[in-house]
Amino acid sequence: MDPIKILDNVYWVGAVDYDIRDFHGYLTPKGSTYNAYLVVDDKITLIDTVRHGFEEELLSRVAKVVDPAKIDQVVSNHAEMDHSGGLPEIMKAIGLSKPVYASKLGVQALGGQFQNAGLNLQAVGASLSLGKEELTFMETRMIHWPDSMFSFLAARGILFSQDGFGLHLASTQRFDDELGENVWGPLALNYFANILTPYTAPISKILETVVSSGLAARIKIICPDHGLIWRKDPGRILQHYQEWVQQKPKNKAVIVFDTMWHSTEFMARELTDCLRVAGIETRYQSLKNTHRSQVVTECYEAAAVLVGSPTINNQMFPSVADFLNYARGLKFKNKIGGAFGSYGWSGEAPKQVQAELAAMGYQLPAPEVRFKWVPLEKDLDGVRQLGKTVAEAVKKAVA
Ligand code: FEO
């Protein structure tokens, strides 16, 4: 397979995973890529590797530039398995005694993950000479793991940003200028919402340092470990991140629910209509046909998230519990919440949902709304009141 030249002596040598659909609980309907990069200098350097199973793809791309055995050193910007799973096999081709550089925490993580692989793991200092050029390093804890770091090829202005500024897309395009922002924008937000939301506070600080240190002004190309290489306008994705870390609510609400015999669905439809009529951009998300990771992407910029559940065996519906569990881990900020649902016997679910939203720090301007048996149009005043109260709270939040 062929490498892709980024600049003279700098190549993309990664792998395209057209088939992956579940990325640790996150739906990847368009697959993904595991990007790795080769810099040919006096010391030939491989930056990051690929998921286990894609070693041959990387090595065949490298072999079109140099014999893999001639690689002198490897830099691992991030230890997660999608970038390091192939490391043991790849190091056998490169030479097990060659150094693998990582952050201090990266050395610990790689050592723990590959105990018997015989890797020569070394912690990086501030920089690493490649011969004529050098890589400088910046710790970027929590983009995406504690070990994560950026590598910067200063002379070319190339930032190797591992998970930062990535997106999940398996395609034949490698560069931002090959796809419009209308294509990559939603994918980048989907990635940020599902992977990086819990860490917006540390990421915000890292972005401030990137700007205040002067690094931002020197970046000409950003090479992440997933998706597109940003060469046309790397500032654009940086701008999106600067906005997304703020978690600033927009005039938007998400109605997310599941239903047993269509009654909670009927309530969800009325609620959707109420919010739309009140001038709120509203998304109707049925967990019957919408994956949790797509729902949280809709939630990301929404001011309000209203969650509906029927009651089954004194509990909320399993799909609703699954969604709330996933959303709790993402630690959304600045959200208004609400709960609703129909029931036949005891009807605990809406109260449980309301309590869960409270525990997640959502502002709850109205009590939960529940209806026994099958509501008719005339029975939906409670839902309409919830919609009205939430719409007022949303307008206040975004004013
Ligand atoms: Fe793409 Fe955190 O690994």
Polypeptide structure, described:
Helix content is 35%, strand content 24%. A seven-stranded mixed beta sheet has the order 1-2-7-8-9-10-11. By secondary structure, it is of the alpha/beta class. The model has no long low-confidence stretch (mean pLDDT 98). The chain binds MU-OXO-diiron. MU-OXO-diiron binds next to helix 2.
Provide a quick synopsis of the model.
This protein is α/β, with parallel strands linked by helices and 399 residues long.
Strand composition percent: 15-25%
Going across the major beta sheet, what is the strand order? Answer: 1-2-7-8-9-10-11
Backbone shape: elongated
How far the N terminus sits from the C terminus, by CA atoms, comes to 53 Å
Radius of gyration: 24 Å
In DSSP terms, counting alpha (H) and pi (I) runs of 4 or more, how many helices? 13
Which labels suit this protein?
399 residues; alpha/beta; seven-stranded mixed β-sheet; 23 strands; binds MU-OXO-diiron
Topology:
Blueprint: E1 4-7, E2 10-12, E3 15-17, E4 22-23, E5 26-27, E6 32-34, E7 37-39, E8 45-47, H1 55-63, E9 73-75, H2 81-84, H3 87-94, E10 99-102, H4 104-113, E11 120-123, E12 127-129, E13 134-139, E14 149-153, E15 158-162, H5 181-196, H6 200-212, H7 215-218, E16 221-224, H8 234-244, E17 250-257, H9 263-277, E18 281-286, H10 292-300, E19 302-308, E20 311-312, E21 315-316, H11 318-330, E22 336-343, H12 349-359, E23 369-372, H13 381-398
Parallel strand pairs: 8-9, 9-10, 10-11, 15-16, 17-18, 17-19, 19-22, 22-23
Antiparallel strand pairs: 1-2, 2-7, 3-6, 4-5, 7-8, 12-13, 13-14, 14-15, 20-21
Helix pairs in contact: 1-3, 5-10, 9-13, 10-11
The site of MU-OXO-diiron has 9 residues, from helix 2.
